[in-house]
User: Which sequence fits this backbone?
């Protein structure tokens, strides 16, 4: 693979394989050339003391009382706050006394002899800017000046290692009733454990949180393009290899991998926000998928026949080699009506020389029952009748799912999601699962997909505040020279974010109307500006919701040539779609009937 060009190089961080401890005083009996592992941190470091000044011995406690207060920054990120709490707890455990704990919100006194001595944990407003800037992202130091002890680091990885050294038996030593800090100043350079991701050292960290499963998201505000590039250099220095990258509407996206971890890094130009999304390495987005072109590309909208509920969304795409790509599926029910209907569509459209239909990829927008239900029924009824090559989704973690919607919705969602996961384990244990993130692109035969929104983008909001529809993935598909925007049930917070992130990238030939016509906005649809609209809504839903502002905009738009409503009936079109004038109703009427395959709508 061709290596990406680097516009700005970052001096590589030296990763030291051993921890060398050089301490004096406090009775520590250490060989200055001794090499030892820094246990408890999962990393290794180079440690040096007494480089420019004599090592100090400082009493932290005396006569059963703490002489210092522990102070962290008032605006510290969550990771630093948690580390500071852990630091204080372990220090008290070791000393056997309580330490005051606070933030740098209050200003220190002017007289060092009268104000309370402080252990400054991390970068605080007491830290000189040049002192903080002098540290590399993986460097740390423990120093003392007047009545302050500073545990300094610019990244959580380095800060946690500094904490381990501070609390080690060689550095904090008990003598009688006192606890002494020995051998400082001490400096070190942390290294990353296998698969560990460097912290983003620039801008303002708004939060670090777990998204879906083991996926960890770091959201950093006030970042620049140069800082984004510098961070990519840090990933390479930490042993990550470039996999893919691109620019969309001035935003930057890159994927890096090592044997254990995948990292997706994005920067939104208009917001100045960088997101670092890391997770255990799994299936990588296929950038190529060659195929023999022997069939027309078709798109089918399947009308659900279930008696459980009228709504649902299921689209079937026949690709150039006769294999299929499925978007969601629909509600489904125990009577197998819709799973059998889907199977019959696949059988009718597959090449004659193919025994079993091949589903090259089954894509899901989100996990509501009317989108994954047919997959569940189909898996029980027909898992042996087809070949599924890949599943594509990014669902929220189970704990958030259980509190993301109304009780009525949740009962159905949890039931169907539980069955979904059981089906994966029972029938598709060997089928690769592609977990996608914003900026990813992947190829399915002659169909190209790019991802323009996933649930990681929503933070600091979440599905707990906006509901499950906020996690609908926004897929943009290019097939036959035409683009289709699959929106699922994308909700209003997500729509606003997408409008802030993208401009031209949202423009498409074919739009899937959001949430059966409930969601979507005039601003969003006018940005997309489609020529055709696909409306996955039940029969009658078109009439009842045609007056909603966003739907009315589509109906009144001079650009929109046709609105195809799945509730009218199952339909199939050829891609690229260019219907013959006079062969279709622009919007359905009570007498509208769509032709059945092999007859095609618009031909």
Assistant:
């Amino acid at each position: 693979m061709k290596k990406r060009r680097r516009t700005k190089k970052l001096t590589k961080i030296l990763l030291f394989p051993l921890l060398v401890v050089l301490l004096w005083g406090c009775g520590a009996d250490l060989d200055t050339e001794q090499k030892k592992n820094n246990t408890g941190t999962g990393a290794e470091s180079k440690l040096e003391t007494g480089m420019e000044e004599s090592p100090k011995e400082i009493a932290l406690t005396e006569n059963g009382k703490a002489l210092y207060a522990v102070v962290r920054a008032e605006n510290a990120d969550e990771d630093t706050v948690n580390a500071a709490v852990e630091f204080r707890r372990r220090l008290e455990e070791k000393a056997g006394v309580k330490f005051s704990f606070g933030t740098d919100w209050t200003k220190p006194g002017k007289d060092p002899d009268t104000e309370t001595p402080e252990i400054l944990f991390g970068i605080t407003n007491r830290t000189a800017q040049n002192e903080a800037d002098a540290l590399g992202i993986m460097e740390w130091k423990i120093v003392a000046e007047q009545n302050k002890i500073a545990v300094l680091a610019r990244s959580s990885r380095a800060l946690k290692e500094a904490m381990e050294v501070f609390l080690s038996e060689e550095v904090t030593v008990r003598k009688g009733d006192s606890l002494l800090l020995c051998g400082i100043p001490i400096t070190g350079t942390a290294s990353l454990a296998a698969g560990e991701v460097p912290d983003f050292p620039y801008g303002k960290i708004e939060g670090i949180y777990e998204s879906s499963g083991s996926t960890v998201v770091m959201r950093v505000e006030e970042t620049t393009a140069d800082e984004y590039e510098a961070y990519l250099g840090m990933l390479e220095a930490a042993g990550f290899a470039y996999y893919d990258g691109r620019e969309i509407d001035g935003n930057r996206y890159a994927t890096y991998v090592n044997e254990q971890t995948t990292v997706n890094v994005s920067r939104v130009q208009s917001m100045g926000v960088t997101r670092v999304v890391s997770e255990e390495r799994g299936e990588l987005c296929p950038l190529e998928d060659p195929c023999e072109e022997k069939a027309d590309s078709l798109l089918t909208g399947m009308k659900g026949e279930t008696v459980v509920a009228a709504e649902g969304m299921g689209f079937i795409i026949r690709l150039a080699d006769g294999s299929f790509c499925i978007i969601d599926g629909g509600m489904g029910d125990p009577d197998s009506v819709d799973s059998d209907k889907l199977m019959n569509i696949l059988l009718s459209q597959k090449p004659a020389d193919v025994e079993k239909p091949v589903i090259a990829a089954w894509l899901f927008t989100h996990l509501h029952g009317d989108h994954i239900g047919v997959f569940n029924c189909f898996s029980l009824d027909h898992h042996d009748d087809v070949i599924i090559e890949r599943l594509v989704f990014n669902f929220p973690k189970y704990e958030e799912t259980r509190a993301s919607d109304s009780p009525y919705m949740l009962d159905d969602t949890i039931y169907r999601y539980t069955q979904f996961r059981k089906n994966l384990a029972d029938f598709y244990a060997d089928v690769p699962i592609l977990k996608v993130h914003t900026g990813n692109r992947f190829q399915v035969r002659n169909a190209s997909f790019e991802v323009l929104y996933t649930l990681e983008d929503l933070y600091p909001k979440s599905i707990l505040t906006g509901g499950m529809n906020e996690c609908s993935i926004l897929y943009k598909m290019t097939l036959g020279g035409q683009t289709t925007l699959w929106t699922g049930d994308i909700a209003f917070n997500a729509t606003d974010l997408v409008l802030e992130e993208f401009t031209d990238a949202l423009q498409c030939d074919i739009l899937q109307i959001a949430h059966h016509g409930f969601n979507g906005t005039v601003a969003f649809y006018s940005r997309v500006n489609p020529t055709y609209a696909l409306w996955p809504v039940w029969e009658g839903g078109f009439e009842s919701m045609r007056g909603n502002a966003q739907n009315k905009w589509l109906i009144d738009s001079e650009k929109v040539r046709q609105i195809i409503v799945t509730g009218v009936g199952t339909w199939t079109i050829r891609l690229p779609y260019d219907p013959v004038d006079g062969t279709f109703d622009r919007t359905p009427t009570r007498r509208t009937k769509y032709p059945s395959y092999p007859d095609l709508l618009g031909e």
